[in-house]
Specification:
The structure is a single chain. Helix content is 38%, strand content 20%. With 254 residues, it is α/β, with parallel strands linked by helices. The chain folds into two domains: 21-90, 60s Ribosomal Protein L30, Chain: A (2-Layer Sandwich); 96-253, SPOUT methyltransferase, trefoil knot domain (Alpha/beta knot, 3-Layer(aba) Sandwich). The strands form two sheets. It has a seven-stranded parallel sheet, with helices on both faces. Helix 6 runs parallel beside helix 10 (237-253). The longest helix has 18 residues, at 2-19. The relative contact order is 0.14.
Length: 254
Amino acid sequence: MIFGVLILYVLIKINRNKIMKNFIILGKYPVIEAIKSNSKNLLKVYILNQNLKYLQKLNYKNFEIVEKKFFRKIIKNESILHQGFAAKILQNSHNLKKLIISNNNIVLLDNINDPRNQGSIIRNCLAFNVYDIIIEAKFFKEDSPSMHIASSGATMKTRIYSVSNLNNIIKDLKNNNFYVYGFDSCGSHPIETHEFNKDKNVFIFGSEGSGLRKNISEKCDTLLKININKDIDSLNVSNASAISLYELHKKNRS
């Protein structure tokens, strides 16, 4: 009986791994942060011999020393700087239903399709203690090297949720007492004077070109703005997110 249960467990585990995809991340900081986070999703690390010292300092054993041709095979875009580090990662599956009933602060990205901006925003989220980020599925590629590199490893320490319909998610969050803030240059409330709750805040950032889409903007409880010099039209969305998240963090500390 015990033997039969053991076989069943092994078969379930094998099938689970077959269903769940894995992908490669690149870059020194994403790989090192994956190791430091002791993630079960980290399957294996590939490094150039010259980088072995970093893994020895971390006492990490599951690695393979490769040559430069290994990176040439897996990198399609030559502009991506791998720094002689790569890691195989098991695809994440975070519980969105659990998030919706939580007390967490959340960042939601509307129509932001540049993986470098996504990565930079994720880095800002981690810097100011926001661990949950919602991104539209059509703009999100979990295996994007540019996103992981721009995040400096923050993608390994945050939870990213890929969703197909932002409108439904916003509705569910509001039904669970989240307060939703949109960021817009025409917003009526300056962020520096606004008071936030300690938790259950949702910050929505739109694309640099068009900002928040109208249907998303209309669902926000409050539209905030960052006061800047009138000679400048707007900030890069990554910079805007850093300022906004800092304001939330600062006011929650006081």
